[in-house]
Amino acid sequence: QLQLVESGGGLVQPGGFLRLSCAASGFTFGAYAMSWYRQAPGKERESVAFISPNGGATNYEDSVKGRFTISRDNARNKVYLQMNSLKPEDTAVYYCYFRGLRRDYWGQGTQVTVSS
Which of 2, 33, 45, 94 is geometrically suited to a Cys-Cys bond with 39, CB 3.0 to 4.6 A? Predict the structure, then answer.
C-alpha cells in the first residue's frame, strides 16, 4: 500500500529550525520527483520545495529561498525539508507530495507552528 508519512513538525520560536521527514513506501521512490507543500489557516495550499528523482535539481518558493533545503535519500525512501530561520508566517501544515502515473499522492501532514 502506498504511503507518505511526514514527521518532525512542532512548535518553534522565530529564528529557530526544524527538519521535516517524509517516509515513502509502496512505490518506486527513486523514480519520482517529490515536493513539500504547506497550507496555512485560511489560505490555499502552496508549493514550498521540489526535488528531482535523483536529487540533482531543486526548486523553492521565493519566500523560503535561502532558508529551506529539500533533500532526499533514495536508499531509505525518504525526503527531507530542513527549515532554518523560521518565521511566524511559516506556520502551516506541511505535506509531502508526488504526482503518480494516474493521480496525485499526499501525506497526512505535519503541523509547524512558529511562535514566541
Answer: 45
Give the helix/strand (H/E) hosting 83: strand 78-83
Q: How far apart are CA 72 and CA 57, in angstroms?
A: 11
Report which of 27, 22, 25 is spatially closest to residue 51, judged by C-alpha positions.
Answer: 22
What is the number of alpha carbons within 13 Å of residue 47 lying toward its C-beta? 13
Q: What is the DSSP letter of 63?
A: G
SS3 state of residue 38: strand
First to last CA, the chain: 40
pLDDT tens track for 18-70: 999 999 999 999 999 999 999 999 999 999 999 999 999 999 999 999 999 99
Give CA–CA dist 98/33, Å, rounded.
6
Q: Any residues with CB less than 8 A from the CB of 108 and at least 6 apart, and which?
A: 4, 5, 6, 95
Instruction: Say how many residues make up the chain.
Output: 116
